[in-house]
Amino acid sequence: TRSRQVTGVQTCALPISGDYRTVTWQGTTYKYNDHLSNFLFLGVDTREKAETETGSADAGQSDALYLISWDRVDNQVTLITIPRDTMTPIEVFDQNGGSLGLTENHISLAYGYGDGSYKSLELSKNAVSSLLYGMPIQGVCAMSLDGIPELLRSFGDVTVTVPNDSLAERYPEFREGAEVTITPENAEIFLRSRDTGVSQSAITRMERQQAFLDAFGNAAAADPSKVTKLYEDLMPYLVTSISNDWFVKLMEALSTGETVERWTIPGEGVEGEQYDEYHVDNGALYQKILETFYKKAE
Asked: Are strands 139-143 and 36-44 parallel, antiparallel or unpaired?
């Protein structure tokens, strides 16, 4: 049995044997698909690359988290959405940078316990890999808020179908079902705005972000040439461990891949004592992990 153990908390106990390369689940043995490359993308709620003390938790939070898994042989891509309020073990630090170990908290906070740079990337990668039962992650890219309009200035406007009415009261043009053009001027409203006084507003915002990514993917597929210059244009707004070559390959795979599968970490949003929380359905998550990252052993 494999468990995620946190001081005073056992967040998961599943009958899984083996490390991530070979696992046995419900009597069947699976082998990890070595053709995969996995990359984590974060949208960070800072205006610029933060210079912060490790442990001060003020390097910003990762408001948006997406794992892209690319099968380099079949050229198939899977986009996994991770709700920012997902409760999972993250490593926390004191003001002097000393590790206080793991505690169960919102996965979005992992980034903030770093330095707003490569330490933040590493902490986020570790948290997401742990959430996914040790899946390897080859690179991480975090983009600050100011990168949102630059993305559209580089790529061009994107038309989306609004998935819910979470913005309709303040912004009637963003009513559910409306087709709207996302521009550098309104992108931050559509992708970031939420009423923190409304329970699970992060979930409805995430649905808008997913709608944008779907529309962006369709636009990129229609004109793949646009994606090749994105990395250079966005570089001032990025902290990344993904090389230019890999970034371009991944963007091209997204725009030309045979299929793009999409799924969200299974679970449900609940009201915590202070903040919204997203509680993972561990059995359903592991089933999705097997479908995405493994093949049955022959």
From this structure: parallel
Tokens standing for 79? 């986009």
**Strand, coil or helix: what is 271?**
strand
Using the structure block, give the residue that is written with the tokens 């206080």: 100
Residues 6+ apart with CB under 8 A from 34: none
Contact (Cβ atoms closer than 8 angstroms) between residue 160 and residue 219: no
**Residues 6+ positions from 197 with CB-CB distance below 8 Å:** none
CB neighbours of 274 closer than 8 A, spacing ≥ 6?
none
Minimal CA–CA distance to 115: which of 38, 202, 40, 44?
44
pTM, 2 dp: 0.88
* 58: its two tokens: 């003020």
Residue written as token pair 């990395």:
231
CA angle 279, 208, 258 (to 5 degrees): 90
pLDDT tens digits along 61-112: 898 999 999 999 998 999 999 999 999 999 988 888 888 999 999 999 999 9
| Torsion sign across C-alpha atoms 246, 252, 256, 261 | positive
